[in-house]
Write a structure and sequence with these properties.
By secondary structure, the chain is α+β, with helices and mostly antiparallel strands. It folds into three domains: 3-94, Rossmann fold; 101-119 and 190-221 and 229-285, D-amino Acid Aminotransferase, Chain A, domain 1, CATH 3.30.470; 123-188, Dna Ligase, domain 1 (2-Layer Sandwich), CATH 3.30.1490.20. Helix content is 35%, strand content 25%. The chain is built from eleven helices and 15 strands. The strands form three sheets. Strands 10, 11, 12, 13, 14 and 15 form a six-stranded antiparallel beta sheet that branches. It has a five-stranded mixed beta sheet with strand order 4-3-2-1-5. The chain has a four-stranded antiparallel beta sheet with strand order 6-9-7-8, with helices on one face. It starts with a strand and ends with a helix.
Length: 320
């Protein structure tokens, strides 16, 4: 008898389209001989659909043996849908509600990373739009220019900009609040080589299996922005061209971040490698699984296919 696995995708976040692609990849690669997939779509207004028909979470979740979450951003990665799954007793792959919220809140994640000994860029949190002008003046004076302006709680680099000088910084902060960002982070711009490292629990008999480092080489004059991620203009090298010492350190830091944030099953952490050290940026609790995504690329480099990985995730979920 096949295990009924719900694949949650879509959602009300700004990453709706990316989530649809991750969900489609899961649906296409879940081994059919063992699992019966259920396509659960959540529209931008929060309406749930089961195989194309409008439904309620209570109705569809009670029919599942397990769930794989293809959602990204708000509602998917902030712990909200995890609370719902736990309420109805559905085993799911990925981190629990609090750890998901913690990792997605960039400031709280940084604080935990710092406590665990990871190096992070200097930053300033702006919690209200009314603070924008004073904050822009402060960071223009205190931080080397340019700086990174990003929303707290969004992913896929949506809304992230690299700007310098009072007027551009102020405008970037105002624009994020106008777009609905709950709070804004202004961060020191650290120049270096971008890297990301995935860890998977229980893979190949290891408590925390560390995947090869992926080196991200954005187009000249750009950072790893939303456009650079999904336009195909960035180069992603796996394994990255890092020294053995840096590669080992990146793996160690990714494992440390996973533990420090209390994450579960799998994650992917982002770093900047500089001559002064390796800076931790953030951790993704539900990394993308599209054809362009970094985690599947790292898995493939060590001979783990996406179907095998998805089967592993379902087994982890049901073993809780």
């Amino acid at each position: 008898m096949r295990t009924i696995v719900g694949i949650l995708r879509g959602g009300p976040s700004s990453e709706h389209e990316v989530s649809l692609k991750s969900g489609a990849a899961i649906l296409a690669n879940l081994p059919p001989e063992r699992f019966l997939p259920r396509d659960i779509y959540i529209d931008r207004n929060g309406q749930w659909y089961d195989r194309g028909r409008a439904t309620t979470p209570e109705r569809v979740l009670r029919q599942l043996d397990a769930a794989l979450i293809g959602l990204h951003g708000q509602y998917g990665e902030d712990g909200e849908v995890q609370k719902l799954l736990e309420r109805f007793g559905v085993p799911y792959a990925g981190s629990g509600p609090f750890a998901s919220y913690l990792a997605m809140h960039k400031v709280m994640a940084k604080a935990h990373a710092q406590e665990a000994g990871l190096l992070t860029p200097a930053f300033r949190l702006i919690e209200r739009a009314e603070e924008s002008e004073a904050a822009a003046i402060e960071v223009t004076r205190a931080f080397p220019q340019p700086v990174v302006v990003k929303p707290v709680g969004w992913g896929s680099s949506i809304g992230v900009s690299v700007v310098g000088g009072y007027a551009p910084v102020f405008a970037a902060i105002q624009a994020l609040f106008a777009d609905g960002a709950p709070s804004v982070l202004v961060e020191e711009y650290v120049r270096g080589r971008e890297a990301t490292v995935g860890v998977v629990e229980g893979l190949r008999g290891e408590a925390l299996y560390t995947l090869p480092t992926v080196e991200i080489i954005p187009p000249s004059g750009d950072f790893f922005s939303y456009g650079a991620k999904y336009s195909g203009s960035s180069r992603e090298v796996c394994p990255g061209n890092f020294s053995r010492v840096d590669a080992e350190e990146l793996g160690r830091l990714a494992r440390r971040a996973h533990k420090a944030l209390g994450l579960r099953h799998y994650s992917r952490s982002d770093f900047i490698v500089t001559p002064k050290g390796i800076y931790y940026l953030e951790t993704n609790t539900l990394p993308g699984l599209t054809e362009q995504s970094l985690l599947p690329r790292a898995l493939a480099s060590v001979g783990v296919s996406l179907p095998d990985f998805l089967e592993h995730l379902v087994n982890l979920a049901r073993a809780r």
